[in-house]
Amino acid sequence: MSDNPTVGGRVPGSGTDSLGITILDVGHGNSAVVHDGTLCAVIDAGRSGTVPQAELERRKVTRMVHLVLSHGDEDHIGGSPALLLDDAFTIGTVWVNPDWRKDTEIWKRLQMAVRMRKRRGGLDGQQMITTETGQVLRCGRARLEVLHPDFTMVIGGSASQPSQHGPLTSNSTSVVIRVHLDEQPVALLAADVDAAGLAHIVGSEQELSAPVLVFPHHGGLPGSSRAPREFARALTQLVSPDLVIFSIGGGLRPRNPNEEILAGVREAAPEAHVACTQLSAQCHDKDQRVTGHHLAERPAAGRGGGRCCAGTISVTANAGELSFDPPLKNHRDFVTASVTSAQCRVVLPLPRQRPAVRAVTWPISSKAPKT
Questions:
Q1: Of 232, 240, 122, 123, nearest to 178 (Cα)?
Q2: Terminal alpha carbon distance of the chain
Q3: CB of 234 within 8 A of CB of 211?
Q4: I need a labelling partner for 14 at 20 to 30 A (CA). Which of 26, 159, 163, 352 fits?
Q5: What's the pLDDT tens digit per position in 80-110?
Q6: DSSP string covering 48-95, please?
Q7: From CA 48, how far away is CA 294, in angstroms rounded?
Q8: Measured distance CA(133)–CA(153) in Å, rounded
C-alpha cells in the first residue's frame, strides 16, 4: 500500500490506556476496537452491536474513523447496523467488499443502515477494501495494514474463481488486517481466512509477524483443507505470536478450537500463550459457571452468564512496550484453578525437525499434505 493519502486523523494520546487494540468477547464472532484516546476504529462487530457499543461508550468515543467489515457472515457484521445508526458518534468510512452470493437479512440490514446514516449525516462514505486500496488507514497513532484480499479476488466473485485448494468462498476473501501501534506491528486479525486465502497471502509474500494472533474462523476447520494442523502450523509460524486468541462462544461450538488446529499452533509456537474469549465445551462443563474476578474491566458477552475464559483482552502500547489486560498470568492462574481439562495447558511433544520452508509454503503447492 502507498503511504499517501492517509485516511483518519492523528490525535494525542491520553493516559496509559490510550493507544491500543481491544479484542472483544462477543461470543461466537469477532470484533476489535483500535483506539488512540477517544479516537477509534472498529474491525468487525460480532452478531450484536451490544458489546462494541458498550466499549465505545466506555471509551467516550465521539468519532469512529473506520468501520472495517471483513466479510458478510453474520458473526462478523451482525452488530454493524446498530453501530451505524448510533448517533453518539460520527463515522468516517465504512470499508466493506461486495459479496455476490450474499442475500441474507443481515446483509440487507447493513446496506439499509449505510443508506440511512448517509441520508441523515454523520457518515463520510463507504469503500471497498483490498491490498490495492491505495490509502493508509490510520486511527491516530495506530495504522491498519490490509494484507488480504487483492482487488482481482474481490471483483471476480468468490464462487467464480476455483483454486487449486478448492472453490473460493467469502471466507477465502476475508479481509486480513495487521494492526500497528506507533508503527510497531502488534496484532494480526485473520477474520475467517481459510487455506485458499492463506495460499494467496503466502504467494504475495506479505509480512504477517505480530505479537498477537486472533486466529481465523474461531479455531474451526480452514475451509476445504484436509490438513488443518498444517494450516495452523503454517499460519502460526508466519505470525510468530506471543499470544494466540480464539474468539468463541462458550458451549456453542464444542469443536472450537479444533484439536488439530491447536496442535498446529503448539507445534509452531510452543511458548505462546493461548487464550479463548469464552470457555470451550472441550475444556469445561458447559453447564458450570465461573466467576469473573480475573477479567479486565471491560464489556464481555460471557461475563453475565459465567462463560468467560480470558474474556475481552486489551493490548496497549506505551513507549514501545506492550501490556495486556487482563495480565496473561491472571488468565493462566484462572485456568489452572477453575478449568477442568483446559486444552491450552496441554504440553505437546515438539515436532520432528523439518525445513522451515516446507512449513510455510505448503498452501501454494498443488496439493496440501494429508494429516
A1: 240
A2: 36
A3: no
A4: 26
A5: 999 999 999 999 999 999 887 778 999 999 9
A6: -SHHHHHHHHHTT--EEEEEE--SS-HHHHTTHHHHHT-TTSEEEEEE
A7: 24
A8: 13
